[in-house]
User: What shape does this take?
Amino acid sequence: MQHVTEPRNWPVLVISLKDDSDRRTRIKARLDALGIPFSFLDAIDGRSGLAEHFEVLVDRSAARERLKGREMTDAELACALSHRSAYEHILSSSVEGAVILEDDAHPTSRLRSFLDNRAFRRGDLMLLDHGQIIPWFGRWHRLPGGGIALPVGFKANYATGYSLSRRGAETLLEATTPVSMTADWPLDLRKLGALACLPRQVRRSNGHVEASHIEQSRKHSFAAWRQQR
Assistant: This one.
């Protein structure tokens, strides 16, 4: 059995619905196989609608405007709120930062190297998984343990896995008070000097078994939006 050692200073947090035992079992097996200790962070459940007490933390009107008239679904709002709770967790702890994963993440062996070599110290926000990124002018970084990190433009897809410093958590918490955008991402990423890691340390699930909980509601929202246009 591979010996498990604690990555120095930066814990790994996995955002997961408390009752989703299948996903929790899968992500635990993946991280255990890599010798990466972690903690679950209970996600906010929006599958049957957003609980009323969360409404004070969201701005549906602003979200509609930012999404050019499309309604942000309760599941999308819950996802963004779950990531917001991760920012709060970092700031309420004594840690310098954390690595945040969604429970459908597929961590690779490169993630272990990223943690062991403390490569997370290269930036306040480092995208371990990403899609459709727009590279930005700036210095790219060679990562200890292998790979590079490129500056990211204003937008990128996926919040499957990322590292976040305390400064990054403060900036993202401010940008999500209230929540008015999807979890990926609520602000111009250039403000955080975000970096995208290549090759990716984490990959998102592309299988039907682990399809995103929010995907179906998002499809209905897009369909309604198109009919109105």
About this structure: The beta strands are 12-16, 39-42, 97-102, 105-107, 125-127, 141-142, 148-151, 161-165, 195-198, 202-204. Confidence is low (pLDDT under 50) at residues 1-7, 207-211, 221-225. The domain at 12-228 is CATH 3.90.550 (Spore Coat Polysaccharide Biosynthesis Protein SpsA; Chain A). The first strand starts at residue 12 and ends at 16.
